[in-house]
């Protein structure tokens, strides 16, 4: 019988923010680690794999002020998802959404978590998507298990 395994690293992928495109350019994915994932150098490993395979990544960092940004300032909410401005007009506009994902999902606990923002690398809608970050992930995850 199959035994249930506890995940050792969780990754989310989204075309999350226009800020990612402004910050890094239209051809790059962004990887953002939480603290436990950063200690494993996951972002550096995915960046190297992406560089080697032609699926480029830039590394961004979630900082204290990003968690402060998503902290609710009301007794009626636990966490804030966004403000009233577009991410492209908000300082740290691709980092605070990652802080929201971490806090809202409970991944601020000691479990490795990384978020890929592929807004810049996924292609322009309605054209065919690029497939980013599949190549870098394949190189990282399959190579480590072969």
TrEMBL record:
**Origin superkingdom:** Eukaryota
**What GO biological process terms are annotated to this protein in UniProt?**
proteolysis
Start and end residues of each Cytosol aminopeptidase domain? 4-135
Q: Sorted alphabetically, which keywords does the UniProt record give?
A: Aminopeptidase, Hydrolase, Protease
Which Pfam family is one of those matched by this entry? Peptidase_M17
**Its GO CC terms?**
cytoplasm
Concerning InterPro entries, the annotation shows: Leucine_aapep/pepB (IPR011356), Peptidase_M17_C (IPR000819)
- Which GO molecular function annotations are given, in alphabetical order? manganese ion binding; metalloaminopeptidase activity
Report the sequence similarity comment from the record: Belongs to the peptidase M17 family.
Name of the protein? Cytosol aminopeptidase domain-containing protein
Q: Which organism is it from?
A: Pocillopora damicornis
């Amino acid at each position: 019988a199959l035994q249930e395994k506890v995940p050792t690293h969780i990754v989310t992928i989204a075309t999350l923010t226009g800020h990612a495109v402004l910050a890094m350019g239209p051809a790059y994915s962004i990887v953002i680690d939480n603290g436990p994932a950063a200690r494993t150098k996951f972002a550096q490993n995915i960046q190297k794999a992406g560089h080697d395979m032609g699926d480029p990544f830039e590394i961004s960092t979630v900082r204290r002020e990003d968690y402060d940004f998503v902290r609710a300032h009301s007794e009626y909410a636990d966490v804030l998802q966004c403000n009233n401005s577009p991410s492209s007009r908000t300082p740290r506009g691709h980092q605070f959404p990652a802080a929201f994902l971490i806090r809202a999902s409970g991944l601020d606990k000691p479990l490795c978590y990384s978020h890929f923002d592929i807004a810049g690398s996924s292609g322009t809608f309605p054209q065919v998507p690029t497939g980013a970050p599949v190549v870098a992930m394949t190189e990282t995850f399959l190579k480590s298990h072969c």
